[in-house]
Amino acid sequence: MQQMPRSRDMVPAGRNTDTLIGDRLFAGLVRLSGWLMLALLGGLIAVLAWGGLSAWSAFGPGFVWSTAWNPVTQHFGAAAPVFGSVMTTLLALVFAVPLAFGIAFWLVEMAP
């Protein structure tokens, strides 16, 4: 089986590898940006976990699954807001995905 050449081995006619410094610089910046986004996502998760630690320690793991919300007795649960958020997201997807596919189909097949 014949092996495909690597992309860095395929240099367009009239260009040598010395002139591809912009391509290498761009690839390095894209790679750096990707790692930076992963680091930011990890930092965001860490900050959210640290901020939620007080609720987790005060109300325990039942906080996530409980639907009770009583400020008088200081008994709170997050199941209802989490369920509402998930339902809102799913409803938005039900409307957005078919619309996005329709627009994509129109742009690719009918608009050109």
TrEMBL record:
Signal peptide: none
InterPro entries cross-referenced by the UniProt entry: Phosphate_Transport_Permease
Protein location: Cell membrane
Transmembrane domains' residue ranges: 34-59, 79-108
GO cellular component: plasma membrane
Domain of life: Bacteria
Key words of the record: Cell membrane, Membrane, Transmembrane, Transmembrane helix, Transport
Record membrane topology: Multi-pass membrane protein
Major site of localization recorded for this protein: membrane
Entry keyword Transport: yes
Protein name: Uncharacterized protein
